[in-house]
Design brief:
Two copies of one chain form a homodimer.
Chain A lengths: L9 E5 L3 H12 L3 E6 L14 E3 L5 H10 L2 E4 L6 H11 L7 H5 L4 H10 L7 E4 L2 H11 L3 E5 L9 E4 L5 H7 L8 E5 L3 E12 L2 E4 L3 E6 L2 E7 L5 H17 L4 E10 L4 E7 L9 H4 L4 H10 L12 E8 L4 E2 L6 H5 L3 E5 L4 E2 L4 E9 L2 H12 L5
Helix pairs in contact in A: 1-10, 2-3
C-alpha cells in the first residue's frame, strides 16, 4: 500500500485507448504517475494525458524497455501482446507485469482459455479445436448449424469470427480465418441465449471484490448498452458472480478481469469470453459503484487494498456512444444528456470520429433498471458524434 | 456547447498546482485536451498529466504566447497574474481568458475587491486603506485591537497578513508589509465570528449554479477541514448563498468562484475573501455533489451548460491532508481511509512532502455532518505523508 501511494510511483499501460485512459484518470487521483506504450504513432486517448509516452512494436521487447524502465508496474489494456513477450519484458526490465504473463498465458488463446476454465469446473460454450474443414463439418452436425468459427488469437468486436450457416459454407469460413495457413481455429456452438451477462472481478494479494452481474446489449457483435443489475433472477446473478470469481481464481489473476456469459433459454449460465483488463461492460461502475472497475484495476495492480464494488443506486445503465459520422470528432446535441443530474457523459478524446467507433459513453443512474434504460436512450438519441 | 466538446479543443491552465490538476481530470472526462503554463521549472501536479506543458514568467506575456496559441480557452488556478497581463495575453493571442481580465480586475486587489462588493450592497468586513502608520492607529482605535493589516495584492494562506495587537506594534507591522515602500495596504477589523462559511458559484452565459453553504475549519490561517452543509441555520446558509451569487454577478463572472464569509456572533454574514477559481473549500464537491466545482469550472469556461450543484448525500466532509514530514512524498497508513466505502482519497502527486504542505485530501460522505466529521478525523488520524 505504502509503495503504491508514493507520488513517484509510475503505473505503465501497454495500450493507449480509452480503457487505459479511464484507468489513468484513477491513477492520477491517487497521485501516481502514468506512462503509456502504444504500437501506433497517431495520437491516442491516453497519450494526451501524460508526458511519458512511448511507442514501438508489441512484439519487440527491445522497443518496450525504455518504457518498462520508467515504470514501477506495468499493466495491459488489451490482449494484443503475447504472454511470452510480456514474460521477457518482465524478466529483462525487472518491472512486474500484472495481470502476470502466467495468468495471461492461460486465456490469451481461445482454445487454452476454454480448457483452463473447463478444467476449473466452469461451464463453457461447447467448442472444438478445428484443424481441418472436416472437423468443422462434424462439429456443426453434432451441435447444429449455424455455428461459429473463431481465430484462437486476436479476435475483437466481431473481427476474427465467422458465423457458419451450413456445411456448404464451412470450407470458405475455414479459409477466410486462415485455417489452411495453419492458424489455430476453434468452432463454437451457437448458443440460444436470453441474455448476455457480464461480471467484473478485481483481485490481488489483499483480497477480491466481485461487481454486480450486468447485462450487455449487443448489436452486430458490438456492445451498445449495459444494464446493471441484469434483469434476471438474483439466483442467476449470483451464479454468474460465483463463476466469475472462480474463473479469476483459476488463472490466479491479479488485476481487473471481466467475464461474459450466456444465460440460455433453459437457465444455464455458460462462460463465453474473458478479458484480463477493464471492460466496456464495466464502464457504468465509474458512477454506478462505490469503486469503479478502473479504480480497482489501479488498486489491484499497485498492490493496494480494493474498494467496494457495490452499486450506489438501485440501477445503472451505460449507453455506448458510437461515431455517427466520419469527421473531426465533436459531440453535438448532448445538452439534454449533460444537464440530467443523474447522467454522466464521458468522451475518450479521440480526434477522429468514424461510424461505429467507440467515441464516448453515457451513464445514467436510477431506481429501476428498465426505466433507467429507456430514459438513457431518450437522453442520448439525438447525440451526434 | 458543440465547440467545447470537440476533442481537439484545448483548455489551458495558468498555474499547475492541485486546483488545475483536479480541473484537468474533469476536462479529460469530456474528451478535451489540457495545456498548462507554470512559472516553475520543477515538476508540478498538473505537469504530470499532459504532454502540453509550458513554463515562463507570469509577468511576461511573450513567454506565455506559445501556450496561449495552443489553447482554445485559458483559465486560472491562482491570483498571481496581473489582470493587465491577462488582458494583453488575450488581445495578443486572440485566445479568450475566463474569468475575464475585466472580472479579475475587480477583485485582484483587496482594496478594490472590498469596494466592488460594498458597492454591490454586500456586507464586507470593516476595512480602510492604510497609507501611513497613523491610519492604522486610528483604525485600531475605532474598531478595537487587535486588527489585521494585509497587503492588497498577493496574500495567500496567511502570507502577506499580520495581526496588529496594539498601537505600539502598528509601525512594525506597517513596515513588515512594505507600507513604507509604497505597497498598498489595508486594515481589517478583527471580526469575532462563530463560523467561517464558504460558497462556490459557477456562472456563464448559459446560467448559474450555487453550491451548498459549507463551513471551513481553519488552523493557523490554513483550511484543515470543510463541513457541508455548514452547521448553521438554513436561513444563514441561504443568506450566504444569496450573497455569493450577488458577488459573482457584481463582477459579471464567467467561471467558478469561491467566497468566504464570517458568521458573526450576532448573526451577521460578512464577505471576507473571494477567489476566481476552484477553491479548497469546494474539494468535497467531487464526490459530495452531483457536479463538482472542478467539472463546473471546466463547463463554465468552455461555454457548456452547467451541472447540478446539489449534495448527493445529507453530509460531506473534507479533511486536508497536510504534509507530516519533509521527505519524498508517500502516503502511509491510509488503509482504513481507502477501505471505507463512503471515503475518497485524493493525492495531488507532489513529489516532495513538507510539513504543512497541502498534499492530499480525504472526503467522507454521510448522513449527519458532525458525525461524519468525527468519523473522517478518525479515519485519517494515522495517515502520514
Amino acid at each position: 500500500m505504502e509503495q503504491s501511494l508514493s507520488s513517484s510511483f509510475t503505473i505503465g499501460f501497454l495500450g493507449a485507448g480509452q480503457l487505459a485512459r479511464m484507468s489513468a484518470l484513477q491513477a492520477f487521483r491517487f497521485g501516481l504517475q502514468v506512462a503509456v506504450f502504444s504500437d501506433r504513432k497517431e495520437d491516442e486517448p491516453t497519450q494526451f494525458l501524460t508526458p511519458f509516452s512511448y511507442s514501438g512494436s508489441y512484439s519487440d521487447v527491445d522497443s518496450m524497455l525504455e518504457f518498462a524502465d520508467k515504470c514501477d508496474v506495468i499493466t495491459l489494456e488489451n490482449e494484443f501482446i503475447d504472454s511470452g513477450v510480456l514474460k521477457e519484458l518482465e524478466l529483462r526490465s525487472g518491472t512486474p507485469v500484472y495481470p502476470s504473463p502466467e495468468s495471461f498465458a492461460l486465456i490469451e488463446d481461445k482454445l487454452i482459455e476454454k480448457q483452463t476454465f473447463e478444467k476449473a469446473g466452469i461451464p463453457v460454450t461447447p467448442y472444438r479445436k478445428i484443424t481441418a474443414v472436416s472437423d468443422l463439418i462434424s462439429f456443426g452436425k453434432e451441435h447444429g448449424w449455424p455455428c461459429l468459427i473463431k481465430s484462437s488469437k486476436g479476435g475483437y468486436d466481431g473481427y476474427g469470427n465467422k458465423t457458419v450457416r451450413s456445411a456448404d459454407s464451412a470450407e470458405e469460413a475455414f479459409r477466410q480465418l486462415g485455417g489452411d495457413q495453419g492458424h489455430t481455429l476453434i468452432a463454437e456452438a451457437y448458443v440460444r441465449f436470453t441474455h448476455e451477462l457480464a461480471v467484473q472481478v478485481a483481485r490481488n494479494q489483499t483480497g477480491h471484490v466481485v461487481y454486480p452481474c450486468c447485462e450487455t446489449v449487443q448489436k452486430n457483435h458490438i456492445c451498445v448498452a449495459v444494464k446493471s443489475p441484469a434483469p434476471v433472477t438474483s439466483a442467476q446473478q449470483e451464479r454468474a458472480r460465483e463463476l466469475a470469481l472462480k474463473a479469476t481464481g483459476a488463472i490466479d489473476g491479479t488485476g481487473l478481469f471481466a467475464f461474459e456469459f450466456f444465460l440460455t433459454a433453459n437457465g444455464d449460465i455458460l462462460l463465453n469470453e474473458s478479458a484480463p483488463r477493464p471492460h466496456n461492460s464495466g464502464h457504468y461502475t465509474i458512477e454506478g459503484c462505490v469503486t469503479s472497475q478502473f479504480e480497482n484495476h489501479v488498486r489491484a495492480v499497485c498492490g493496494m487494498a480494493l474498494g467496494s464494488s457495490e452499486l450506489i443506486r438501485p440501477a445503472a445503465v451505460m449507453i455506448n456512444l458510437l461515431g455517427t459520422h466520419h469527421r473531426a470528432s465533436r459531440i453535438e446535441n448532448s445538452g439534454k444528456a449533460v444537464m440530467e443530474p443523474d447522467g454522466h457523459l464521458h468522451s475518450y478524446g479521440k480526434l477522429i470520429s468514424k461510424k461505429g467507433r467507440k467515441m464516448a459513453h453515457y451513464t445514467l443512474l436510477g431506481d429501476e433498471v428498465e426505466k433507467t434504460y429507456s430514459r438513457a436512450l431518450q437522453l442520448t438519441e439525438e447525440i451526434a458524434i
